[in-house]
Amino acid sequence: MTEPGTAETLDEADFRSVLARFATGVVVVTGSTEDGPAGLTCQSFSSLSLDPPLVLLSTARTSKTWPRIERTGRFAVNVLASGQRDLSDRFAVSGGDKFAGLDWRPGVLGNPLLPGALAHLECAVHAVHDGGDHVIVVGRVRALEAPGLDDDSPLVYYRSAYRTLSG
Ligand SMILES: Cc1cc2nc3c(=O)[nH]c(=O)nc-3n(C[C@H](O)[C@H](O)[C@H](O)COP(=O)(O)O)c2cc1C
């Protein structure tokens, strides 16, 4: 892509490659569903409001996991550390038992918390809005935890690849 796109000429590849220049952290959103623990990898997470304490993320309408979590009315956000690429990949596949052989523990709201994460937030589903081919999920934070860890550097996603912070 060399020319700036306009509303008329925007194509999907340009949209993806330009937006991929916005670096983010990586989280795994988990829930305790009627079929057991469930989760999916997301980069669309951000802080929204301090009073009341709200966070947001967006999930694709094709997600198999989010609708199951939404039905429980609550979810956890696990902020991944730089050494957790495998965990990100594990939760970025659709279907199957993503928790097989995985060590996890329930948080105070009962949502699965993943060991080694930089931070855990447990939320109530506050609102779900239309977001085109995604839905925008607003969560009201009910519990927070930032464990002391040896690896306190975040996993970063930038231009479709995992990175770590330098400098
Ligand atoms: C680094 C990374 C970030 C991702 N961010 C999101 C996201 O913000 N929203 C989303 O819906 N999918 C995101 N995905 C893709 C989902 O994790 C993937 O589609 C997954 O298969 C969904 O699983 P499900 O169908 O079980 O819900 C991301 C994947 C990766 C590797």
* Overall 3D form: globular
Considering DSSP H and I runs of 4 or more, what fraction of the residues is helical? 10-25%
Hetero ligands: flavin mononucleotide
What is the top-level CATH class? Mainly Beta
CATH fold annotation: Pnp Oxidase, Chain A
SSE sequence, one letter per element: HEEEEEHEHEEEEEE
Largest sheet entry: 7 strands, antiparallel
For CATH, the homologous superfamily is named as: Electron Transport, Fmn-binding Protein, Chain A
**Mean of all residue-level pLDDT scores:** 94
Q: What structural class do you assign from the helix and strand content?
A: mainly beta
Low-confidence stretches: none
What's the architecture in CATH terms? Roll
Strand order of the largest sheet: 3-2-6-9-10-5-4
Q: Report the count of strand segments.
A: 12
Walk me through what this model shows.
The protein is mainly beta. The protein has one domain: Pnp Oxidase, Chain A, CATH 2.30.110.10. It contains 3 helices and 12 strands; from the N terminus they run αβββββαβαββββββ. The chain has helices at residues 12-19, 65-70, 85-90; strands spanning 24-25, 27-33, 36-42, 46-49, 54-60, 74-79, 105-106, 112-113, 119-131, 134-145, 155-158, 161-164. The strands form 3 sheets. The chain has a 7-stranded antiparallel beta sheet with strand order 3-2-6-9-10-5-4. A 3-stranded antiparallel beta sheet has the order 1-11-12, with no helix packed on it. A hairpin with a 2-residue loop joins strand 11 and strand 12. Bound molecules: flavin mononucleotide. Flavin mononucleotide (FMN) binds next to strand 3, strand 5 and helix 2.
